[in-house]
Amino acid sequence: MAVATVAARYAKSLLDLAQEKGLTETIHKDMQFFKETVAKNRPLLLMMKNPIVRAEKKNNIIKAVFEGRLNAMTMAFFQIIAKKNREAILDAIAEEFINQYNRLNHIERATIITTVPLTPVLREKFKAMVMQTTGGKLVELEEKIDPKLIGGYVLRLGDRQVDESLRNQLNDLRLQFLN
To answer: How many CB atoms lie within 10 A of CB 34?
Structure first.
């Protein structure tokens, strides 16, 4: 079975349980913390995905790193995943949990790439653009800086992208001159 399908099923089960227990916000924060920790610590991610490392050792490392920082229910969920030898997809489960949580709460995630940091006014304008486009209630805006754009911005929303960068406009001009 595909990793995405399995991750979606585990994430759905965890989200349903979290809603039942009234811990949706807590588990969401736990999953965000887990995802950020694994993203910043590549050796931890590689160890979890390594089939040579025994499940028991992986479970002990996960306990050592996250116990006391995450809710007891999240830790119990991680132990269930470890018993089923699915530690390799924990990052995918966390990502899918966050996606399902966002859909449930009508939160849109977008990425804005600019050449300089956004001012609060621009940030609000981009959030308004995303809300107008999607009809979402809340917008989580991830900001990235790329000096190669020269100027302008690139806004990514799901599988859509608005490229209003100077680099893109110069490339368009170059293509027009070549034709």
So the answer is: 24
With a pLDDT cut of 90, the percent of the chain lying above it is 63
Domain chopping of the chain, boundaries: 3-103, 108-178
Number of C-beta neighbours around residue 86 at 10 A: 18
Amino acid at 29: K
Left if phi > 0, otherwise alpha if psi is -120 to 50, otherwise beta: which for 152? left
In the DSSP assignment, the letter for residue 117 is P
Helices (H), the chain: 3-21, 24-40, 42-49, 55-66, 72-83, 90-104, 120-134, 166-178
CA distance 66 to 118: 33
- CB-CB contact of 34 with 117 (8 Å): no
pLDDT tens track for 159-170: 889 898 888 888
**Which value, in Å, is the radius of gyration of the alpha carbons in the chain?**
20
The CATH classification of domain 3-103, taken from the options 1.10.520.20, 3.30.565.10, 3.40.50.300, 2.60.40.10 = 1.10.520.20
CA distance 158 to 52: 35
Instruction: Give the predicted TM-score (pTM) of the model.
Output: 0.80
Q: 132: Cβ–Cβ under 8 A, 6 or more apart, which residues? A: none
